[in-house]
C-alpha cells in the first residue's frame, strides 16, 4: 500500500513540462480531447451571425444547428467515424489520408489539375479558384479552360548596366515568366546572330524556374577582354509575344584607380529567388 501511495504521489508531483514532453504529439489521433458540450435542441435564433466570405463555403456545426466556415484544402479534418474535433471540409473537398505524406486526414481537392480563370489568372486547381471566387466576392469567376493561362512573356528580372575589371568573369542574367515557357536568346550589339556564336570564352545557360512558367538565363563571359564591352540584350519569346531587356557592360583596366573599388563591391550580383511573391527586378551582372 505504501508503494502505491508513493508512486501516485511521485506522478502527481512530476514537473508538468516533463509530462507534456513524453506525449506523442503526432496529430489528431493523439490530441488531448476537451470535453465537448452535449448538443441540445437547436434554437437558430441563438446562433451567432453566419460567417461571411468563407473560402471553402459554410457548413453546419457539430450539432447541425449553426453555420460555421468549412475547412479549406490542406487543413486537418474529421473522418465520418471520428469524433468532431477539427471540422468539416468544404463541399468540393474530400477528407482523406494522403498516401505517404501524413497519418492524419486532410482536406484534399479531388483534382490537382491547374485551371485558368476568367480573370486570366492560373490557379493550382478548381478548389483554389472557388476559394478565390468566395473570398474576393467574384461570383462571376469561372474556369476559362483547364491548364495554366496562356501568357505572353513578361520580365521578372531585367539586365542592368554593369562594370567589371578586365580578366575577370562576368555573369549577366535575366528572368522571364510566360506560358508556354519562353525561349531565351542573347545578343550583343554589333554582332550578327545570337550568342555565344564562335566565342569560346562565352557560355549561355538556361533553366526553368525558380517558379512554374519561369525561365532564367545567364550569359557568362570568362576572362573578359576589352572587345567584350558593349550593349547586351536578353530576348524572350513565345507564340503570344516577346520581351527584351538590355544593358551596357563597361570594362575597367586592372591598373585603373577604380579597379579595387569595382572588385570589392561585386557590382550587380545576379540572384535567383525562390520566393514567388518577390517578382521585382533584381541585379543582373556579376564579376569576380
Descriptive overview:
With 288 residues, the protein is mainly beta. It is 12% helix and 31% strand. It has four helices and 16 strands. The chain has helices at 2-12, 16-21, 126-135, 259-265; strands at 58-60, 67-69, 94-97, 105-108, 115-117, 122-123, 143-146, 151-157, 162-165, 170-179, 183-188, 202-208, 214-221, 230-238, 241-252, 285-287. The strands form five sheets. Strands 8, 10, 12, 13 and 16 form a five-stranded antiparallel sheet that branches. Strands 9-15-14-11 form a four-stranded mixed sheet. The longest helix is centred in the first third of the chain and has 11 residues, at 2-12. The radius of gyration is 30 Å and the shape is elongated.
Write the layout of secondary structure elements.
Layout lengths: L1 H11 L3 H6 L36 E3 L6 E3 L24 E4 L7 E4 L6 E3 L4 E2 L2 H10 L7 E4 L4 E7 L4 E4 L4 E10 L3 E6 L13 E7 L5 E8 L8 E9 L2 E12 L6 H7 L19 E3 L1
Parallel strand pairs: 9-15
Antiparallel strand pairs: 1-2, 3-4, 5-6, 5-7, 8-10, 10-13, 10-16, 11-14, 12-13, 14-15
Order of helices and strands: HHEEEEEEHEEEEEEEEEHE
Spans of at least 5 consecutive residues whose pLDDT stays below 50 are: 1-35, 265-288
What is the count of DSSP helices, taking H or I runs of 4+ residues? 4
End-to-end Cα distance: 79 Å
Strand-pairing-aware structural class: mainly beta
Radius of gyration: 30 Å
- Helical residue percent band: 10-25%
The average pLDDT score comes to 78
Strand residue percentage: 25-35%
Main sheet summary: 5 strands, antiparallel
Task: Write down the overall geometry.
Answer: elongated
The number of strands is 16
Amino acid at each position: 500500500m505504501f508503494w502505491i501511495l508513493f508512486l501516485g504521489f511521485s506522478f502527481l508531483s512530476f514537473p508538468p513540462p516533463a509530462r507534456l514532453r513524453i506525449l506523442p504529439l503526432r496529430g489528431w489521433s493523439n490530441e488531448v480531447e476537451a470535453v465537448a458540450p452535449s448538443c441540445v435542441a437547436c434554437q437558430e435564433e441563438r446562433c451567432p451571425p453566419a460567417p461571411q466570405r468563407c473560402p471553402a463555403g459554410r457548413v453546419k456545426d457539430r450539432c447541425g444547428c449553426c453555420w460555421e466556415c468549412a475547412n479549406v484544402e490542406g487543413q486537418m479534418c474529421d473522418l465520418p467515424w471520428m469524433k468532431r474535433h477539427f471540422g468539416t471540409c468544404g463541399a468540393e473537398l474530400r477528407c482523406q489520408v494522403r498516401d505517404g505524406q501524413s497519418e492524419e486526414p486532410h482536406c484534399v481537392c479531388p483534382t490537382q489539375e491547374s485551371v485558368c480563370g476568367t480573370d486570366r489568372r492560373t490557379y493550382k486547381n478548381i478548389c483554389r479558384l472557388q476559394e478565390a471566387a468566395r473570398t474576393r466576392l467574384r461570383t462571376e469567376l469561372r474556369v476559362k479552360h483547364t491548364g495554366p493561362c496562356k501568357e505572353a512573356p513578361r520580365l521578372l528580372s531585367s539586365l542592368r548596366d554593369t562594370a567589371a575589371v578586365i580578366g575577370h568573369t562576368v555573369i549577366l542574367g535575366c528572368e522571364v515568366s510566360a506560358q508556354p515557357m519562353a525561349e531565351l536568346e542573347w545578343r550583343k550589339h554589333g554582332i550578327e546572330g545570337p550568342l555565344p556564336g564562335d566565342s569560346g570564352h562565352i557560355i549561355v545557360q538556361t533553366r526553368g524556374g525558380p517558379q512554374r512558367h519561369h525561365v532564367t538565363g545567364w550569359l557568362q563571359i570568362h576572362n573578359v577582354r576589352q572587345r567584350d564591352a558593349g550593349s547586351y540584350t536578353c530576348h524572350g519569346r513565345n507564340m503570344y509575344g516577346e520581351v527584351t531587356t538590355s544593358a551596357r557592360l563597361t570594362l575597367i583596366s586592372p591598373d585603373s584607380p577604380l579597379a579595387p573599388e569595382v572588385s570589392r563591391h561585386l557590382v550587380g550580383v545576379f540572384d535567383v529567388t525562390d520566393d514567388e511573391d518577390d517578382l521585382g527586378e533584381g541585379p543582373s551582372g556579376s564579376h569576380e
